[in-house]
Amino acid sequence: MNSKIQSLLLGVGFLSLTVIYYALGWSHELSGAGGDNAGYLLAAQYFSPYQPASPILIEYSKQIIYPPLFPWILALAGGGESTLVAHLVVMTFLLLAVLVLYFWLRHESLSVWQSAAISLIFALMPTTYLLSLDIWTEDPYTFFSLLAILGVCLATRKDLPKWLWLAAFAVACATLIRTAALSILLAFWFFLAVRRPKNYLYLMAVSALPFVLWTIISASTQVGLSGYTHSWLKVYLTTPLLTILSHQLHTGSLALYYAWQFGWLGGSQPPVLVFVVTAFGAICLAGWLYRLRYLKFDAIYVAIYLAMVFAWPNPEPLRYFYVVTPVLLAQGFLLVVGLSQSGLRMGNPAMVQAVLAAILMLTLMPSFVINSRYFLQEVPPEISAGKHIAEWFDDNRKIAVFSAYFHARLISHLKEINALIPENECVYAIKPTLVTFYARRSSYGPPKIDVSDQEFWRGMEKCRYAYFLPFESPSYGGESFYPLSRLGQRAKIISMKKIEPNDNLPPVGMLAEIIK
Fold first, then answer.
1. What is the 3-state secondary structure (H, E, C) of 385-404?
2. Of 159, 313, 333, 421, which residue has the fewest beta carbons closer than 10 angstroms?
3. Cα-based distances in Å from 375 to 2, 39, 230
4. How far apart are CA 255 and CA 260, in angstroms?
5. What is the pLDDT of residues 189-218, one digit of tens each?
6. Where are the domains of the chain?
7. What is the pTM assigned to this prediction?
């Protein structure tokens, strides 16, 4: 194919992806009722160079638990002032990650169409576009981790050691995006220790310095690595080692299988497609092990990352495994390409590779077409923001519509309660960042559900108000509307919002004044 036509097709394809993802992320509201979205945006508002921080933001800054790079990027881009901009920043990182994946595969000697096919497969996986709806760090982290892999690939395959500085920079940035980047930092150090390229000690120092500084800072506030280590030790020091390891291996394996299957098929489970993605998953694991045998940097990274995830007591399958999905995809396809070109009797190598890519692309099409229809569905204007939450793409349309209405009513209520809470007062809530973001009042988590009555009431002395949400939070125990039941008659409900005024469903939120 003529190189100009090839470049034109690639450009049109990438532009189409850009339009799809920017349309998907075009929302002026947070996606969902989780606290991380709001937390990152509040941090961005605090760091914003475009407006001074309010007293509420200054108070919130004492609670910031995230590594700082993502909020800084949001702040510089204007994400602190515009939720829409923040969504588009996330989508931009996703698109950049797709580009870096393509260039890595090209420098692994795959053809243009092979590299483009794998990158497109990753871009169209349900996990990819559903996780990108939230203002989370997964996509920025995926971009920097792939950039590190690309830098090492350029340095080793092209014999250009200077590209290791790109890798060191990317690793350093990754460690300031997510604490889980300890895995790619350790992988980079292991790679440098084995290869010992020129200036490898300086490369180690550059890649590790931000992480070391952040760890020192976070140690004083029990966040970051310090907070995760505390949570990890709390489980491992109270449970027999063999018991916890066998449990982790079992739950981690199931979580990985679930995340991989959902990543391809979404909520649908046609047996034939389940077989296809499971078989290709086995190929990807074989490709990873094959590259690990030769101590390839990307394989070392996946090994350390998976070990960390399997050891973590409370895995979130989709979020935790998503960031290594493009790497595993690449490793599986590299194995197939390598075998088909190795002289084994697999027929025409190009045909084998084309058939595999076509099968994988067709496997994605049912969920992609169905979810496209959901996104293009007409909805009442008051719940239009609900089309930008992951729950909207549930195959059970009653649940999807309910989720959209719940999302819209909750945001509306949180904005309304601003007028009911004096400026100098604060609010207890199991999602304090969500309350602070929309209600513009300082908010704090209530005492945990298992504390004594004395500790509970001591911990409830700071604020005069509490906001109750109709779902459970793992941080506070299995109880909806916590801590309403514990407050009892001392909670005077002053505002309540339901999905519909006369329905029999629980309210989406309740504000109470605490009678002292």
1. HHHHCHHHHCCCHHHHHHHH
2. 159
3. 36, 27, 41
4. 8
5. 999 999 999 899 999 999 999 999 988 887
6. 3-374, 397-514
7. 0.94
